[in-house]
Structure formats: structure tokens, C-alpha cells
Write a structure and sequence with these properties.
Layout: H1 2-18, E1 22-31, E2 48-52, E3 55-62, E4 69-77, E5 80-86, E6 92-113, E7 120-139, E8 148-154, E9 157-165, E10 169-174, E11 178-183, H2 194-201, E12 203-207, E13 217-222, E14 243-246, E15 251-255, E16 267-276, E17 281-287, E18 294-301, E19 306-311
Parallel strand pairs: 1-7
Antiparallel strand pairs: 2-3, 3-4, 4-5, 5-6, 6-7, 7-8, 8-9, 9-10, 10-11, 12-13, 12-14, 13-19, 14-15, 15-16, 16-17, 17-18, 18-19
Length: about 300
């Protein structure tokens, strides 16, 4: 029995000396710039906070174990910060403002020691929530072509009309009505019938870039005058133009322009047609003098003579 008492006393003594004596607790309320990451588990993040007269002017939060910024916050007012969110490669992900709310969305604790008195205390952190507000730009991570959405937030929720952009307005969504329905006000590539698209595409389209395997997305401008007429550089007036001709009876003619290719061949002829499914529209080109047949997804086309395709 005596041995049992000794063991119990020994364990109690370990418990007493193994745990710090808590003299007091401290509390602080902070802004949740960390997006609900636990405050005392931010080891490995390169964080930077710049203050002046007790006001936060700038906050940087990195990716884990990297110097690359994940978020940067810039003070506008005490309750409003402009934020740039980055992808791991350093490109923009989102750009817009955050409003600082009074709502406490969580808490965390850390144990700290007063270096002058050696007293231990708990520091309790309360997190004030932040919400997206006003105009935002949100880039599509899965796209290599800098597609982005732009629209308005109201206290963290999308409101009104959001536009999907890529140099042109690809589509819209009205979050005040039906957020599941796409609206095509200018882009005729999706909802127009095949006969209408054929009439729209007929003619010569000047390619703004080179059509090669490393650049599957191509942007065209329709030539208003050609076949020897004046007014546009679609007639090789200044240099050999890179263009596609969509002719009647589904005939196709392509001229490779200067600066994009070696002149191993200047033109390729073939046939073209349009196919649609429930979601997408495709332009199919079958070459007569080559086995290289193309399937181009119609990303955008409008009545102002703009066309975007993407090789599949």
C-alpha cells in the first residue's frame, strides 16, 4: 500500500511541475485575413503586417513554405481593404475589396510567456469575419487563356449580372434571377442554329495570331472588303495575310501569313461544316491535300465580325 501512495504522489508531482501555472488570460480581436486558418498553426507561412499609429496598412500572407504571396491586403479605410489573391504561379486569381464585419467567426488560443516575469498566460484570439463586397474580377484557374468573370458582391454573395470575359463577353449570368442559366447577349456561337452560323461565318477571316499547336485558341476579324478591293489588309496589300476563307458550297481556303510559318506551302484547300451538341458548337475542317483535319470549338462569334475558336 505504501508503494501505491508513493506512485500517486510522484504522478501528482509530475502533473504539477509539467503544466505551466496560468496566472492570467489575455484577449485580442483580430481581422481574419488568414481566411479561418488557425492562428497558432501558421508556421511555414511568410506573413507580413505593416502598421502605422495602430492601424493596419498592409498584410501579406504567403503560400505554405513559399515566399510567393497568396493574399495581399491594402487598407482603404478601417473597415475596407483592397485584396489581390494570387495563384501559386504568381498570376492573379481574384481582385476586389473586402469589408470587415463585427461578426466573430471563431477563436483560437496560444500560450505566451512574459519575458520579464516568466509568467505564463493564455492569449485568446477572436476572429472578425471579412466578406467580399463591390466589384470583383475572378480569373478562371483552369484556363490558360486568361478567361475571367467580373461582377458585384454584396456581403459575400454574388448579385446582379456577372460577365464571362475573354477580350469579348462570352456569356452572362444574372444572380438576381436564375444563377443556373447562361445568357448570351452578344455571343452567337452557342444558341444560334446551324443555318444562321453558316451565313455568319461565310467570308474571309483574318487571323490575329499564328495557328499552331502551342496556341490552340485563335482570334479572327472578319474582312469587310476583299478580292482586290481596298480598305483592309485582307488582300495582301502590305504583307501576306494569314486568313481563312469560308466559301459557298462548304469550300474552304486557307492562306498562311508572313511571320508565322516557313513558306513550305502558301495555302490549303478543303471543306468546312458546323456541328452542334447540347452544350457546344464545332467548326470541322477537312483538308483535301492533307490528312490533317481540324475540329475547332466555337468559343465566340458576333455580328460585329469577331470570332474565337479553340482547336480540340
Amino acid at each position: 500500500m505504501r508503494n501505491v501512495h508513493i506512485i500517486i504522489l510522484f504522478l501528482l508531482s509530475l502533473s504539477a511541475f509539467g503544466q505551466p501555472k496560468i496566472e492570467k488570460q489575455k484577449r485580442d480581436t483580430i481581422i481574419d485575413f488568414w481566411n479561418q486558418r488557425t492562428y497558432d498553426r501558421l508556421h511555414g507561412y511568410e506573413n507580413r503586417v505593416i502598421k502605422s499609429d495602430g492601424k493596419i496598412l498592409y498584410v501579406k500572407i504567403s503560400f505554405l513554405e513559399k515566399s510567393q504571396a497568396n493574399f495581399e491586403y491594402f487598407r482603404i479605410t478601417d473597415n475596407l481593404f483592397h485584396c489581390i489573391e494570387y495563384s501559386p504561379d504568381g498570376n492573379y486569381k481574384t481582385i476586389g475589396n473586402y469589408i470587415i464585419t463585427d461578426k466573430i467567426i471563431g477563436a483560437d488560443t496560444s500560450m505566451i510567456e512574459d519575458i520579464t516575469t516568466a509568467e505564463m498566460s493564455y492569449m485568446i484570439f477572436y476572429f472578425r469575419g471579412i466578406l467580399k463586397t463591390g466589384k470583383f474580377i475572378e480569373y478562371s484557374n483552369q484556363s490558360e487563356f486568361s478567361d475571367y468573370w467580373e461582377g458585384e458582391y454584396n456581403r459575400g454573395k454574388r448579385v446582379g449580372i456577372w460577365k464571362h470575359m475573354n477580350g469579348f463577353e462570352l456569356k452572362q449570368i444574372n444572380y438576381d434571377l436564375d444563377s443556373t442559366k447562361n445568357i448570351y447577349t452578344k455571343n452567337l456561337a452557342i444558341e444560334s442554329p446551324i443555318d444562321s452560323l453558316i451565313m455568319l461565318l461565310k467570308g474571309r477571316w483574318m487571323l490575329r495570331s499564328c495557328d499552331n499547336e502551342t496556341s490552340p485558341r485563335m482570334i479572327f476579324t472578319k474582312c469587310r472588303t476583299y478580292n482586290g478591293r481596298y480598305g483592309e489588309d485582307c488582300n495582301n496589300n502590305f504583307s501576306k495575310t494569314n486568313y481563312y476563307d469560308f466559301l459557298t458550297k462548304n469550300l474552304f481556303y486557307r492562306q498562311r501569313g508572313e511571320g508565322c510559318f516557313e513558306f513550305r506551302e502558301t495555302s490549303i484547300a478543303g471543306n468546312w461544316r458546323i456541328e452542334k451538341n447540347s452544350y457546344d458548337t464545332y467548326l470541322l475542317i477537312n483538308y483535301i491535300d492533307s490528312k490533317d483535319n481540324w475540329k475547332l470549338k466555337l468559343i465566340y462569334v458576333d455580328r460585329d465580325g469577331n470570332l474565337i475558336t479553340e482547336r480540340q
